[in-house]
Amino acid sequence: MNKSRSSVIVAVCLILFLSCKKDIGKVPVVSFCYWKTTFAIDSMDAAKMSQFGVQHLYLRLFDVDWDGITQTPNPVAECEKSYDYQYLTDITPAVFITNAVFENIKEGDLEDFAVKLSNKANALRKSIFESCLYSEITKSERYQQLLKDGDTGWEAARKYQDSVMSILEPEYLKKNNELLIDCDWTPSTKAKYFKFLELLKAKSDEMSVSSTLRLWQYRDYKLAGVPPVERCLLMCYNLRDPRKYETENSIATLEDLKQYINHSDYPLQLDIALPIHTWAVYFRNGRFKGIVNSIPVSEIAANKALFEPKTENRYRLLKDTVIGETYYRYGDELRIEQVDFNTLNGFALHLKQHLKTNSSTRISFFSWDAQFYNRFKKDEYNQIIHNFAE
Description:
By secondary structure, the protein is an alpha/beta fold. It folds into 2 domains: 24-136 and 175-277 and 339-387, TIM Barrel; 279-337, no CATH class. Helices cover 41% and strands 25% of the residues. The chain contains 14 helices and 18 strands. The protein has helices at residues 3-19, 43-52, 99-104, 110-138, 141-147, 151-175, 190-203, 215-219, 221-224, 254-260, 297-302, 341-354, 370-373, 378-387; strands at 29-34, 38-39, 56-67, 72-76, 80-81, 90-97, 178-182, 208-214, 231-235, 269-275, 279-284, 287-292, 307-311, 314-317, 321-323, 326-328, 333-337, 362-366. A hairpin with a 2-residue loop joins strand 15 (321-323) and strand 16. It is globular.
């Protein structure tokens, strides 16, 4: 078999890998939100994604906040990419924009903002795909064989790499052509936010635009407005103020969800994000001190020498101690917050009563991290997903 034919066969196989989906009828797409600051999928992550049947990722690229000094929107917390092994799947890049941006930006500056954000997001999208695929190509048997031919092999390997990329990149970018904008807009900022979305759609020839949707924006859509996009990601978590001492679970409860999902009138196609994340809310003398992500929730309950249970989900520090970079005092309290499987199952059953879902609907779990996704088994994820099937 000649080299050029071999290259084409490899490229075709990779295209099939990128685009292959099982015939799942009306069962929704299995998705996860990847909200870390570094995009790095190791072999354990890849094995879990395969086990759970993950077909899609929302990948946070960067945040945008308002810079009070320059009086401009400023990108922050950009996601770095790893050049290690990557798991190639459908990816929707996401950008979080604080509401402060739309509180402060002038309407005349929205177009420039849309152009800059579109260019940056598209460049990062291409860069992440290329680094993922280059990593795979360089590990291929064909690439390694070419390198053995010395200096001429290096040149041949580079041409082989470029040849495969020239075939795969257009197909991949055409398939992964959506950009998710995450913003908790308010009635006072919706006009500028919606105009920004319109401008972004006009400037993003290569990408469609979608928006996140908080539960209050779903329930009170006549007040909040409906964003000018084709689909939204409904975020079914963070429903109460964690700063209040009397709150039992600020992430989500079924009772709270039912207060928001009380009609079936929303006019756009909705994807759904469900919470699998956990955290501990930190109090001192009943006053909110912060949200703790540095201590795995399971370790709090297990460490009886340091934490004394007060109630089912509240623990008191038994001595002064330093954990991570935080100094805790005797008597400080941590309130563990998480959503269990039965509650998530209840979410799915209630949401299905009000929202129309199909095989293109994404059911996304927030967020992809071993300490979170390992809380549930494959069968439990499957049961939640199939609860949405028609």
